[in-house]
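Quick review question:
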């Protein structure tokens, strides 16, 4: 979207607001969020979480093994160049420091993603188990109401015949 389009959209929105004296809330008509059936249930596949976490962990390991290789040699070269009086030594040291800072930041992000996926998977499994336990206890309770002594719609014979004293 170009800047001019953005400015035009903002101006049109402002005109709509000024043209209307009624208060407008930023939500759907009918109030409240849509019902879950309107947009679907939350679905998280543990396979997907595992793959994301594993990929982040693998990237972390590769960064640790391969991307840090240049840091000691760069630092050594920078020190040697500085000892010999070359200004390039300070520049190389600066680049090496920035590389290490950015690498640590990227590795931290990978570790965070990996740990988050592991925790999310564990929490999701726990929630799933809790929901299944709750639903099975409801099903068990509901089954107790379905145990009938007589046919549906008929009076239960266990209570006997109604007395005829009221009719007399």
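Suggested answer, residue by residue:
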């Amino acid at each position: 979207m170009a800047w001019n389009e953005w400015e035009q959209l903002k101006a049109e929105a402002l005109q709509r607001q000024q043209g209307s004296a009624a208060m407008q809330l930023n939500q759907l008509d009918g109030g409240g969020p849509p019902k879950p059936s309107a947009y679907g249930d939350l679905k998280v596949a543990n396979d997907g979480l595992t793959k994301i976490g594993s990929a982040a962990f693998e990237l972390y390991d590769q960064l640790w093994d391969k991307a840090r290789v240049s840091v000691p040699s760069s630092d050594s070269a920078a020190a040697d160049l500085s000892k010999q009086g070359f200004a390039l030594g300070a520049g190389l040291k600066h680049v090496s420091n920035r590389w290490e800072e950015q690498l640590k930041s990227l590795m931290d992000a990978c570790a965070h993603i990996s740990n988050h996926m592991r925790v999310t998977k564990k929490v999701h499994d726990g929630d799933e188990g809790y929901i299944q336990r709750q639903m099975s206890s409801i099903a068990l309770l509901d089954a107790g109401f379905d145990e009938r002594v007589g046919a549906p719609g008929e009076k239960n014979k266990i209570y006997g015949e109604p007395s005829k004293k009221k009719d007399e």
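Why it works: Residues 55 and 138 are 40 Å apart (CA to CA). The mean pLDDT is 75.
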